[in-house]
User: Fold this.
Amino acid sequence: MEKALNRFKKISIKNLMVDKAIYVVLFVLLVVIVIIQPSFLSFGNFKNIFAQSATRIIIALAAGMVLVIQGVDLSTGRMIGLAAVISASLMQQVDYAYRMYPNLADLPIIVPILVVMLVCGAFGGISGIVVSIFKVPPFIATLGMSLILYGVSSIYFDRPPYGAQPIGGIKRSITSVATGSIGMGAVQIPYLILIALAVCIIIWVLWNKTKFGKYMFAVGGNPEAAKVSGVNVVRTQIKIYALAGLMYAFAAVLEVARIGSASNTTGNGYEMDAVAACVVGGVSLSGGTGSVGGIVIGVLIFTVINYGLAFIGVNMYWQYVVKGLIIMLAVIIDMRKKMKRK
Amino acid sequence: MENEYILEMKNVSKLFPGVKALDNVTLKVRPGTVHSLMGENGAGKSTLMKCLFGIYSLDQGEIILDGQEIQFSNPAEALENHVSMVHQELNQVLDQNVMENLWLGRYPLKGGLIDEKKMYDDTRKIFNELDINVDPKAKVGTLPVSQKQMIEIGKAVSYDAKIIVMDEPTSSLTEKEVEHLFKIIQKLIDRKSSVIYISHKMEEILRISDDVTVMRDGKWIATQPASTLSIDQIIKMMVGREMTERYPQRDTKPGDILMEVKNLSSASPAFMGVNFELHKGEIFGIAGLVGSKRTEVLETIFGIRKKGEGQIIVEEKEIQNNSPEEATKNGFAMLTEERRKDGIFAELSVAFNMAIDNLDSYIKYGLLNDKLIKADVDKMIETMKIKTPSAKQKIGNLSGGNQQKVILGRWLLTQPNILLLDEPTRGIDVGAKYEIYQLINQLVAEGKGIIIVSSEMPELFGICDRILVMSNGHQSGIFNTKEVNQELIMQASAKFI
Assistant:
């Protein structure tokens, strides 16, 4: 009996290690970075990491909602691309020589934001309809949507008079959103961090304190049971794909502000970054589980890898290898947890 | 030399974080017998079997098979060594045909290719021997549960199984299919195989078992020849207390008409011409064989299934239930047959599972208020005696009976007038069943109307005021429970076949 109890204790410590393995690995990674470059530990660096993560957090939260309802969104990157070219074309300086719309008035920032949110919300809604009403697997529906969006944004982008040129000359009032900060003296908090924080709070409330959020988890956890419980599954799914579209569009405007220009390749590949961050942050690919905090941590982890490894001069290609390993590790841990339950 | 026991599991213990799932359990099975394993949900029956199959490792004790100590590391190894299991939830490749499933992983080969003919002949031979009437070339996905189960038994025989474990094999079978299963079990016994039989159905157990082992709270309680036991004795050992009745007394009488169903049929023709009235405070049963479309009647009333013709009139007003959403608004609630499939959100908490249908009442200043949710959920956990460490516990970790109570609680929070219960006590142990009957009685005492579909005839007789019998998509009669017996119900069930 004694022996058995000891064994039981050992197992649970082992389980704990497995559960938190991803954090252990990252902690080790961070320690290694700091040992090689002690100057990594500075307020400035952490501010940069957070600021770089800001738009990615918004994107990952949107992609995470789709994962929670047992979907996956492959159109994330192209959705951002479309929103980027449209919003950039509406946010160029009035005196810029290569304006897409030379005679366009100086629009207040809210106009391009609303326009692209409307456009991407509609495209997202279409994905949602294809998935929920026509029962097309999300992988295929959003793959198709991704191609359509790339086509549409390229058509919009590649036209006379200037052809396929990056849309630049973004107004300073816009770019300052990405570069500016608020604060006193040395302690400056970038606007981007504040914006991301605001989005996180709104999304947290939406997920945890509204019917919509509870229905999202219900549909993700067991669509059959949700239906029988009187949840309108189809409507919930459409709403979530549309909301994801809105959020991508908002993030795209921030991306344009950060980069200072846009082209039809803006956002390319973001869907994989978003899914990877969600998975590392504990969103299960089989749906039903996920938290705002987890997703934020997932995004931060990837930025730390990017930024930290670059900081100590690791070759960029090696960074890909490390990122890939971490994604696999995260899913292995997720699967192990599931097997343990069985 | 012949051993007295084909299988001996001696002093087996198994620990899980926080619980001692098995505590010094002993199970001894004689060759060529049916040995029933009984106990409430959570008594440790499944854990014991999982230890046998190497899904769990033993913390203590030994397993002796045919005189040799063994310890399998996975179910495949157990199968190789002639120990086989017919699962409650069958694991089969639905898109493949019967024989492909049967010989999966060991297809007979001829010149490097699969020898279809040998596979077919071998399958036929086994099926003939066991009196199983299934086409080896039929796609498994198209077959009813009873036949899927028989394929599994055939598979066990193809591995020359000496021990076949059957976990709740009759839970989704009709009486006729159960009879057939029992015949097959007899054939297995004739071949000198032993069957370990797990079931909650007492009548069955006493009918077919040679020996009965009862477990409670992870402990061995007794092993006795079935011939020396009565249902009451078994129940007493299972629950550890005297249980005088399986169905609680009720002294309320049905009142005015609550709902009228007139000439109801489903859109895709599953059933037609269903007519009945449900009174306030009445428990109305629906009986019938599997395939008689009992569930479909409930689903149509609740709007899961499209209605064809007919009217549903509640308190003299015709209502339309075009979706579960509308039905819920109209004061209906439905407990579905397959708890795991379309009842619970397994990964989510008890609180979530209970509150999900009633969120509108928890909104304060536009947002959901956790305190209001917690208050309701805690109250429900207490009144329904749900065994859970807290409302935050994942519902998937609770026993079947407690899960069922949570879902019933979910619907009670919406304060429905009419409850549709589809097999509400399937796979639930005696004690929890009794508590669910008590809850049902409380509800009718409040004047609610309850329609209950059940495959367990004694249950319908034990709790219903009246019983409607479905036969092959037709209504073949409504009987007053006091004026009818099981034979008459069976006759009515077969009327349109």
Chain B has 17 helices and 24 strands.
